[in-house]
Amino acid sequence: MFMKAISATLLLLSSLNSLAVIDAHEFSSEEIRERYEALIEELRCPKCQNQNLAGSDSAVAEDLRREVFILLEDGHSDQEIRTYMRDRYGDFILYDPPVEGKTLLVWVIPLAMFLLGLLVIFFVVRAATRNAAKNIADDFESEDDEFFAGEDENR
Amino acid sequence: MKKLLVFLPLILFIMVASFFFYALQVRKERPVSELASALIDRPFPEFELQTLEGQMINRNALVTGEVTLVNVWGSWCIACRAEHPYLQELAESGVRIVGINYKDPKESAIEWLNRFGDIAEFHIVDRDGRLGINLGVYGAPETYLIDSQGYIRYKKVGIVDDYEWAKIKPVYERLVKQSEAVDSGA
Questions:
Q1: Which of A36, A39, A50, B13 has CA atoms 20 to 30 A from the CA of B167?
Q2: How far is the C-alpha of A14 from the C-alpha of A92, rounded, in Å?
Q3: B131 exposed, middle or buried (CB, 10 Å; 0-12, 13-18, 19+)?
Q4: B169 contact A CB<8A
Q5: In angstroms, what CA-CA distances link B66 with A108, A139, B145, B146?
């Protein structure tokens, strides 16, 4: 009885993984189905712009999923399909914008920020280490002074 | 110098905050939610579809040498009802309007036009939305302005009202002038 409860709960929870809309497409091959699933995750829904085609249940997303299916079955390559969508909806429809021209900034800026961050960390750590080293050296110095001062006293 | 470095995060923050302020406030009139049209300055796509009256037509019926407003609408689209009076005014002032009945059952579309009035020269029936996909449509109402040669020169996602027409009108008038120049063999 307990085991049944656990299994039932686990099965229920695992169903949350399939966060996709169910379309009834009949794929002519497993390879096409896999390419379809990959593409509809890469393409943004133009209406609900923070969702991909796989996760959106808007009418446009359904139409575009069907379009991807049609294009795949017609024999187009993945890249041709991306270009097809870009030609109609602009760069924004791809989650990964192409690396060219104005979209270059989208790629470059995060990388630049990251490298800048690394540089800042490097300098801060170096300064802090030097500071800490200086403090320790100062402590030694004053300890030495106290020690030698003490020696004078003991004479 | 070190003391100044302390202020660096603050300075960066002010820079970034001003940029965001600019993006949000100053450019408010162009909402970020609208995608820029990928079809500006490109020819209106080819198509072969029926009109609401059952006539099979293609792009040649649309591109007749006249500057045209192409309005994407559906009987299911509430905002299209709000837009309709403005389009009516435009049609009355002589603007050529062609409708694309987008993802709509024919009967519902005809009923809607009987109820609210028909201001278009004809309506292209895009039942499954494939012409819409070729145009980069993602909802209704959407309006395209095409020149006399069939090139898309302007796209508006959303209602064309007085405010919007104030922006479109100069483009429209310029295109009409251009088409007149072409006609007179200039």
A1: A50
A2: 32
A3: buried
A4: no
A5: 45, 89, 11, 9
* Joined tokens for residue B96: 């050529």
The tokens 């009923």 sit on which residue?
A: B111
Q: Do B38 and A89 touch (CB under 8 A)?
A: yes
As a whole-number percent, the residues of chain A with pLDDT over 90 amount to 35
Q: What's the predicted TM-score (pTM) here? A: 0.72
Closest CA to B67 of B37, B40, B96, B100: B96
* Residue of A60, A86, A87 with shortest CB distance to B138: A60
**Amino acid symbol at A16:** L
Residue B29, pLDDT above cutoff 90: no
CB contact under 8 Å between A90 and B138, yes or no, is no
Query: Touching check for A50 and chain B: CB below 8 Å?
Result: no
Phi, psi of B113 (to 5 degrees): -65, -35
Calculate ∠ Cα B135-B139-B141, nearest 5°.
Answer: 95
DSSP state of B51: B
| Cα–Cα distance for residue pair B27/B21, rounded to 1 Å | 9
**CA-based nearest distance A61→chain B, Å:** 9
Q: What is the mean pLDDT of residues B76-95?
A: 96
| Interatomic CA distance for residues A37 and A49, integer angstroms | 19
- ipTM beyond cut 0.90: no
**Tokens (6 digits) for A34:** 């896999």
C-alpha dist (Å) from residue B5 to B10, B15, B113: 10, 15, 67
Taking CB atoms and an 8 Å limit, are B37 and A47 in contact across chains? no
What is the dihedral sign for C-alpha B179, B135, A94, B79?
positive
The model's pLDDT over A78-107, given as tens digits with 9 standing for 90+, comes to 999 999 999 999 988 988 766 666 667 777
